[in-house]
Each structure stands twice: as C-alpha cells, then as structure tokens.
UniProtKB/TrEMBL annotation, chain A:
InterPro entries: Adaptor_comp_med_subunit, AP2_Mu_C_sf, Clathrin_mu, Longin-like_dom_sf, MHD. Pfam families: Adap_comp_sub. The lineage of its organism: Eukaryota, Fungi, Dikarya, Ascomycota, Pezizomycotina. One of its GO terms (biological process) is intracellular protein transport. GO terms for cellular component: clathrin adaptor complex; endomembrane system. Belongs to the adaptor complexes medium subunit family. It is found in: Endomembrane system. This is MHD domain-containing protein. The keyword Transport applies. Keywords: Membrane, Protein transport, Transport. Residues 210-577 form the MHD domain. The keyword Transport applies. PROSITE patterns: MHD (PS51072).
UniProtKB/TrEMBL annotation, chain B:
It comes from the Eukaryota. GO terms for cellular component: AP-3 adaptor complex; endomembrane system. The gene is APL6_3. Residues 567-594, 702-806 are annotated as: Disordered. One of its GO terms (biological process) is vesicle-mediated transport. Residues 715-727 have a biased composition (Gly residues). Residues 776-806 have a biased composition (Acidic residues). The keyword Membrane applies. It is found in: Endomembrane system. The lineage of its organism: Eukaryota, Fungi, Dikarya, Ascomycota, Pezizomycotina. This is AP-3 complex subunit beta.
Amino acid sequence: MSAIEAVYIFDEHNNLLLSHTYTGRPPPPLVLLPLYLQHAAPRPSVLYFPSLHPSTVLYSIVQDNLLFLSPSSGTDTEPLLILEFLHRVADALEEFLGSPLLASKIASNYDIVAQILAEVADAGIVCHGEANALRDVVETGPGVLNNLLGKVGLPGSTAVPGLQGGGPMVMSGSGGGIQRTVSGLSALQPAQTAQGSAIPWRRNNVKHTSNELYVDIVETLSVTLAPSGRLLSAFAYGSIAFTSKVSGVPDLLLSLSTGGKGAGVGNRGDQLRAVMERTVFHPCVRLGRWKSEGVMSFVPPDGRFALCGYEVDLLGPEAPLTAGKSTYGSLGLPAGVEITIGLGSSGNEFEVRLTQPTTSGGGASIATASLQSNLSGGSGIGSRLSANKPGIGTGDSKAPSLDKLTMRVPLPAAVRNVTELRPSKGEAHWSPADGSVEWKVAAKDFGPLGAVLRCTIQGPLAADGENAGAVLNGMTATTYDYTDDEPASAYQTLDGQEKQSNGIATPVSREAKVEKSRELMPTSATLSFGVKGWLASGLRVESLLLDNKKSRGLGPEVKPYKGVKYLTVSREGIELRC
Amino acid sequence: MESISRISSLLETARDLTLEAARDAGPRKSTRPLPAPQIKKLLDSRQEREVLDGLRRIIAMQYANPPQATLTFFPAVLKTLSHPYPSTRPLVYNYLIHHAELDPDTALLSINTIQKSLSDSSPRVRAMALKTMAGIRVPVISQIVSLAIKKGVSDLSPLVRKAAALACVKCVRLDETTRSQVEEYLAVLLADKQYYVAGAAVQAFMEVCSTERLDLIHPVYRRLCRMVVDMDEWGQLALLKLMTLYARRCFPRQTKRTKRAQTREQKARDFYEDLEPESQSQSFEADYEEISIADPDLTLFLTSIAPLLQSRTSAVILAVARAYLYLGPSTHLPSAIGPLIALLRSPQDIQQVALHNMVQVCLAQPSLFVPYYRHFLLRSTEPPNTRGLKLEILTLIFPSCSPEIQSLLLAELEHFSRSPNPALVRESVRAIGRCAQSPNLTSSRRCLALLLNQLHSSDDNLVGEAMQVIRHLIQRSPTEHKKTVIRLARNLDHLTSATARAGIVWLVGEFADSARDEVGQNGGVAADVWRILVKGYAGEGEEVRGQIVGLGAKVYLRWLNERKKEKEEKSVNGAGGELLLSPRTKENHDGEERGFAGNAVTHQQQEEKETSHPIELLWQHTLLLARYTPSYHLRDRARLYRALLAIPSSTELASLLLLAPKPVPQAPSPSESRREYLLGSASLVVGEDMRGVALPEWVEEGREPDAALRDETGDGTGEYVGQGESGRAGTVSAGERLDGLLAPGGGVGPAKKGGRTLDAWLNEEEGTESGGESEGSVESEEETSTEDETEEESESEEDEEAGLVK
C-alpha cells in the first residue's frame, strides 16, 4: 500500500546508473524514462501515466545532477513518503560515498550502494532511514571508504572500521592526516556489533582521535519587493547543520541567542521561539527542553546531519501593511537593488542599480553582530568559537564577507536581442537560451557607490519593421494629433479598425514607443549572493556544551574542538518587481 | 524535508562540481571486469579478501548497465555462504534474494544454511538471516518462513523482532494461506514494548491487513498512541494512517447532539449547564457540538501526535494534519497549519506536493491560512505548477482577509496579470475573477474595476482573458451590470483583441437590451452598436463577425417581438394605443402586416415593397454580408438565422433559440474537483482516482466497539511483552480475555445487543418521522450494516485465533 516498488538512478546524461527492485513488477526504468522526459523542463515531482498498465505514478527527485525515480503502480500511495524516502536514499549514499554524489562514485561502489538500498527498505517497506546508523550494518570492506574519502578530500573523514582480521583501523583526523593504528580486530566490524545501537540514529562504537564539533547555520533568503521598493515579504529559511566527531555517546546542549531581536517577550527561550518560527528537528533533539527552556539538548548522530530547520519572518510577526516602516534597508542586507525601466529615447532601455544600503541597517548590524560574537566568546565556547574551520577560507563572523553577487534579469520571450550591456562594474551578458541578462559583480569591486548596469533591448522583427515604416512615413502623415485625441470621442465617428490603421501610419510618438517597449521590459529581477559570517536573522550560537556527566564513552578531560560558521545565502532569493 | 545533502550543497558552493566530475571521469578505478572462471576462482578461495573481492565483482556485474549474466555463479556464491566471515554475508544474501526467483531449485539449497544462522549467537546475523529467508521468493518455503517468523517473534533481541515484523509482509505476499498465522504473529508484535518493533509491526499490519482486523488494534491502542513519538518516521506514518482509519471506525461522530454520558468531562458540563444562566449556556451550546464530546481515547491520540508536527519529515507533518482535518478539525487543525506552511521551505519536489495538500486544507478552512498570506506571494523563479497552486490559495483566502490584505493581494494579482508569460496572465486574471465572486460587495467591485482597467492594456492576450472573466461576472448578475455593458461597448472602438471584441458583442446582444429604458431609444444601445459594427464588418475577424451576426439576429428578433406585442395590445385596446415606434413606420407595418397576412411573402419581396424600419434594413444588410463570408460555418449560421426569422409573425421558435436565458457559468477553484480525494494521497496530487484506501465514514453511535476493549489488559503483562516466551504468554492471556469479553453472555454481549436493537429502533423512527434525525443518512446506515458483518467476522476469527493459540 505504501510500499516502495523500485528505485532507479540515472546520471546527468540520463543513462541508467542503477535499478533496484524491491517488490512486485514495476515498469522497467527504460520504459519510464522517455515518459518522464516527455514533460517540459520544470518537471513535476509526481507524474501520472495512465497509459501504462497498470497505470503508474512516477516520483522523481534530482540530487546533484542525478535523477532518482521511483514508480508506484496500482494502488494509491503517499507521495511525500516516497519523495522523503528518495531524499533519504540520497542522503545515505552521500554519507557513504561523499558529497557531492557523482555517477562514477556510484558505479565504482555498487556493492555498497546495493547494501544501502537493501537496508533502507525491506520488501518495499521503508525501515531504516538514518544514514549514520546504516554504518553499523553496511559492509564497506577494506580500503574502499578510505580511498574514497581520501580522494574526495572530505575535511576529516569519519572513522572507518578496518575489515581484515588483525588489519589496522585507519583513522584520518582532520588535523593534518594523522594516522593512528588501533588494534581494532574484527570484533569492531560492523556486522558483529551484536546488539543494535541503543540510539537508533547513532552508530555504535564511535571512536575519533580528535574530537570536534561544528555548528553551521545557513540561512536562505526569500525576499520580495514591490515595484515601489516596499517589502512584500521577507523570510529567512534557516537550517542548522551539525557535525559531530566525538567518541562514545556525547550529550550536547546547544543554546542560541536572538541577538537582540524579540526582546521584552518573556524569557530567553520565548524570545528565541518568537524568532525561530515553525521549527522542525532531527529526532535526536529533546522537544521538552526546547519547549521549556529554548535550548537544544541532544545526542547527535556521528558525522554531519541536519539538526534543525526554522524560518524567520524578517518583517516581524505583525508587520504593518502600510509602506514606510518596512523598507529594504531595515533588513540590513549587504546589497540593495533598484531597477528602472522604460528609459532612453524610445523607452527600450532599463537600468539596474546595485547599492549598498545607506541606512544604518547594513554595515552597522554586521558590526554589532561581530561585536556580540566577541562578547559571547567568553561563555563556554571560548575564543575559538569564531576561529575558522580548516579549509573554510575567509568570512568568519568578525568580518562578514560578501561574495558571488549576481543579478539576474529575466526578459520576456519577445525580446530578440539585447544590443547594449553597459555595466559600470563586473561582467554582464545576455543568454538567449534562458532569456535573461546575468550580471556578476566581484565583491571587491562592489564599493559604497554601488554599481549600475544599463541595457538596451530590441523587440521582435515585426515591431522593428513597423517602427522603421513609421519613420519613413513620418513626413506624409499629419493627422496624428487628431488620432491622439481620438479615443475618447471616437465612438460615433470612427470604428476601431480604421483608427488602428491610422495609428500605424503615423509616426509613433515617444509615449507610444514606450508603451510598445513596455511589453519587452523585464517584470522582475533577482539578486543572488552569499555572505559568510553573518545571519539575516541575527541569531548567534551562544554556547555549545558537552555534558560530561550524561555522556558515555568519553573521557572526563576530553574537550572537543568547537567551531561555528554562519552563512547567509540568497539564491535568486531577493526578487524585485517592476 | 531537512535533508543534509541539500544543506551541504548550500554550504559547499565553493566546490565546483564540474571540476570534480572532470577529475573523477578519468579511468575508473572500479573493478575491471574479469573473466568468469577467474571470478569463480576468487569465490573458491580460502581467503576472505579474495572471496569478498569476487562477490563485489558479481554484485557490480549485477547492477551494471547493461546488466551482465550473473546467474552462472549461483552455486559458487552459495558455497561461500558457509564461510564464517561476516563481511561476505550481506553480499551473498543480496545476491541470493536477487536470483532466487530465477533459479528456485538452487536457491532452496541455501535454506538449510540460513536456517542455521537463525540460531546464531549474534542478533544481527539472526535478523539478517530471517530477512533474507523471507525475501527468497520461492513459494514452497512459505511454511518454513512462517516458522522462522514465529521463532523471531519471541526472540530476545528487538532487532530480530523487527525483522520478523517485516518478514510477515513478505510471507503473506509469498503465500496467502499463511495470512492467519501471520496475523497472529502481528498481534504479538504490535504489543511489543520496544517502540521500533511496534513501529515495524504497525507498518506490516498496514501492509498485510490494511483496514481489516482492526480488532487486533484495540488492546494496543493506547500503548501505540503513547509510543508514537519515539517511533521512527516510517512507523509514525503507518501509525498515523492506521489510527485515522481506526478512529473513524471506532469512535462515533462527535458533532451529534446526542449526549454521551460516559465521559466524565461531559457529565461535569451537564451539571454546570443547569446552574448557569440561560444566555451563557447557550453560548456554551455553540461550541458544544464541536469541542465538547471527544472520546478520551480519541483525544489521547490527537494530543499524542502533536509533537510530531515538529518532525523533520514532511510526510509526517502532513499525516498529522490529515488526522486533524478528518478527526478533529475545530480543535486541533489550527495547530497544524503553521507546520504545513513550513513545508514550503522544503525542496521543490516536496513543495509542490505540499501545496496541493495545502489547497485541500484551505478549501475546508480558508480562514486559517490568512495570517500566512505572505508565504503565498508568487516568485518569478517558481515553476508554473507551483504558481498556479499559490494563486489558488490566495484566491481562497481572499474573502476572509482584511481590506488591506485584500488590496495587497489584488495588487499582486494585477502585477502578474501583466507578465509576459501567457499562462501566468491567464491564471492571474482568472484568480481575480474568482476573487470577484467574494460575497463582499466592495471587494468584488474593486476586482471588476481592476479587470475593466485591464481592457486598456496593449496585451491582446491579457485583454482577451480579462474580457472572458468580465463576461462571466456580468452573466452572474446582469441586472447590476447594465452600465458596465454600455461602458464595455464603448471600448469596442479601440480594442483589438478578437476574443475580447467578440465577448463584448455577445454581452451587448445578451444584456444591453435591458438598458433600453435609460437610453430611451428603440433597440437600445444594442442596435446602435450593431449599426457601427456592421460598418467595419469587413475588417473583423471571423469570431467577431459571427457575434455581429448573432447580435443582429437578437436585436432584430426583439424588435419583431416588440412589434407583435404592440399589435396585440392594439387589437385589444382598439386602434388608439400609444405608439412607441415612430408613427410613420408603424402605419406602414400595420398596413403591410394586414395586407400580407394571408399569402406567404418572401423576405425579398417584403424588403422591396417597404421603405422599412432601419432595424429591418440593417438585418438584411447583415445577412447579405454574412452570405458572402468565406467561412462556411458563418454562412451556415446566417442561413439558419434567416430561416428562423423569415416569418416576422411567428417568432416563438426563434425566441426559444436565441433569447433563452443562458446558464450562469461557474468558475470554481481549480482544485474543487479534487475535493473528495484524501489529504496526502497521490490521487489528490495527480487528480485521478487511484483506488486508495477510502476514509470510512464515522461509525454510527452505538455501533462502535466497546471502549473497554481498549483497556490495557493489565499493565503487568505489558511490561513483560517482548521478553521471550513470557511475552507470548502475556498476549495469549490478552487474547483469552478478549475472547472472554466477546463470548456470548460475556461482559460486552448484552451491551452490543442492546446497541443493535436500539439502532433497529432508531431506524424505524427515522422511517416514520422523516427528517427529524436527518443526520444519520442512508449511506452511513449502509456503511454500518457492512461493518456489522465485518465485526461478526472478526469475532469468529477471534474465536478461531483463540482456539489456535490454545
């Protein structure tokens, strides 16, 4: 009834990479693929093919350019169950094969993939969703994972149990590839960890040479601006990715602070919950503690996992509908955008302007944010809090760095060409394929003065011919004054058709031209960027404590290395309408 | 919905995917194919490493594209099964499951070894063996599998018990005849103390029994409700589905006013209601229906699933919302809306499905979504499907919004109606049209004004769409919109969109006639519009021409009718009637009518003889124009009209055809057609019925299973469940007790009988005094009668089962 029938994985060229059948006789992958590809490009994730027998619903997700398909024929199923399952499969594969998932990785590790697929669902019933716990059951064999992780260059590969009897168990810590041999005999092998893990999401017998904990908070912006520049909506969708590399069974306590937002509403937990709305948690988080104190208390899985998801309404809970208060500047985003259309002598030009917000929002808030992080340095996490994670590069919370500033202006399909692109900074180009102008500005070029891009667009050929004709006929036609006044009184004298022909014969006044090219003007523009070391919501990690009393299998003197990273991303997330 | 791979793709933007792909695309380090004999040699080796290598190669061959023949290795692979190495086992099992069906005889050779593994000291090995054995699709072994499950059910390790639960499904699929045994095992497993065993058991139960055998759930109901928070997502999903069905079957509908005195809460209320003044008790009465009488067991379920709203799995959130929507809409549903909104931040694929479901909830309770309207503002980067659904939600919540929000939403819709994308324009204009249907007069007037404004746009597509929506609006209440029609007619001068012009012409033909009084002219505006249009007939498109001819026919017909009426009046009142027409034409006509009454006169003759009324002349002119139109369809139509209106005195048929009131067009929300599909089902998303499990109607009062069945059979036994044999003993005793309860003359017997007779009595009552108890519809009666049967069945099964256990 809610059974997974099969999973098919295709690579980026739509070649079949893997097919695993769980139950029944689902339609083969090569029958489904053409049907799937028949649909136009943004393909819905749930497709229905009544032409197949039995009629089949096809579920699909795309992860790292790989296409995952799962057919379901016969009875009704829960679409979200299957889609979630496919995401979990992708997660599990990533856990074992490293991120990003590549076709070649799968092809060279069929044995591991086969085991993963067999474990996650039994006879089509999903039974094992936790990627990390799968490590207990999936045999990776000697060397495979080491090679792989070494090849991918994951920062700090997770411990890989050696396989061979008496063989060394190689652990490569992130601290520079120290290799240490542990006398891990076959007793440590996955299949022999006798009882199942007591904690369903954590594998057994975790051992790390260097204990590390990382908190990565990522916020994705979704902001919509009205043509007037007024904010229609502004959300930050946040996720907390947690990386735990601590031996034994650690019990952690993560507290966040709102950075001043929502002050005056009850205690700290209430404030936090007022800012972080609609939270979802990994099953490891104790919901009771979150409800009562607003802290996340949990025993993490080993390795990296998504601890929490939340959203922040940047406009505040009851934002006024009237304009004025809710301006773009108040968000404190690092870049603002304006767009003016219908410029030039014939109104066929538009101008996009990137600005650094002049209101106190932008720079100041970032400065205060970093100040706070300095202050909070004293509490619990220590001064290493804002220290960089190895290999992350610039952009810690002290000096937020902006990068990948990209403006995208989609143009209507009628636009034939963009004749002129004049960016004051950066590079701009028009790609006819997806019908949009893309403008990239390097962060270092982006100063307080901002940057401007001016484009001239050309309409369809027919319209041009008309224009040319109008200019040629310009001398002879003298009645345009009359026609201009006409529409109001034309009811009795002229019928629409005649007037129309007159209109074409006369030279088009500027207004008419503007009106004409108005259809060619963009209706929206989107801004993408990434800011490291800054969160739009103003959330901060206040402390991350390891409860030595509750934890097991961890020496009392162990002080794990802790790192925090903030990242705000806008992936075409700031949309300006015009 | 939170998937780490998505987050890591955000985090690791720096890493260039293509670069890595290029590095990886080099010579694959993967195993180069070896010839078959060499692989066999590897398998026969005594070294674990070599055996493993051989197995790996075979698995890779099995999955490779194109697939290679791996069946030949079957015996060699099976031989490795006897190796003591744990590392090779999963691969061998994998191979075995994959190939068993192709070569059942060889597969059977492995059964013995696997059976040995069933009593291995390591629980993981036992679990794996059980899983594999059940996975071998050879029907002959079904009894062996069944025995293995029986052993697994009483295993000490929860891992094995979980495997046993999942094996139940495979066993039934393998051989239907094992069903009764399997159900017995499931009954034990459902009562397991370990939450993940119980979760798997629920999954298996849903797969094996679906909606039958709900009697197995009674004794474990409360325990499962308490356990649901700890189960894994998949167990939660199965349980949520099961309990939603169960609740409908086992708790009578709560909105009835019949008082259920069982609940203490309600007794208390009854008590206080007597004391309180009349007015207050009435206000109490208002929510009395909705909140008051939830069965405590149902409340237990509804409250225990509340924490699941913070699950990271979108399917779980939706399943909770489904339970709330169908079981306790007024009390719990509001708390599920926020988490539903949270689904909007999940990946695109999940988002789409979530939106479909949100629309479904929104159709039921639009007002709940109002605070979240900002989430449904459209974005230019979204796929069309998502946009359509968002627009639909916006229009659904529109009537319940405050005026400020309404104007914001309208501005939003207006913005998108000017988009270059025709599909989006159409959808947003239609959305405005749906908003205009709101009962609030000012807002619907604002919508209409907005649409009328759009007629001035230079975008033909937009104008056409807007015109259609306006037409629908006017058709819905023509009397209110007399002036609108005239204003529209004025637009004909500069409109270019053919569909819009045609629409206006049609509207003028239909409704402008009623505007006559104000204009005071014969034929009203319609005749004048007709006159002007005929002038430009040659320049019009075919669609508009057709409408012009139609308009002409209507005006002419009305004119004829008018004249006829006058004539009748005249004949009644004598010759001194007041004239509406100019005296000259009037006389003419009168004379003519009388003169030619007897002999049938053709039109042409009539035309020639008369210095006729302009309308008539215009009609003739129009017919001539239509006659020489290239389109045969239009010529046909003109011919039809000509024939219809050929005899001015008999216009009844023509009136029937042309002036018949047109049915009012309905523009329901697009998802209205999907309303009957279950929330969260695939049918809802694809819009086709796919034979899912239908949600049963609420069980009728008095027909529900006794609440005492859900009493936990002594918490003591509950504690022991799952600990070897004693667990079985515990459930056996539960079964016995159940049996005792159901036995004739037992505790429940009389109550049940009483319920039935009461029902029969109620039915009679309903039959005689129709409508008094109209809530108990015929359908539900049928429902319950079938349910009766199932109940009886289940009782007998219960007896059987008890016998078996004994």
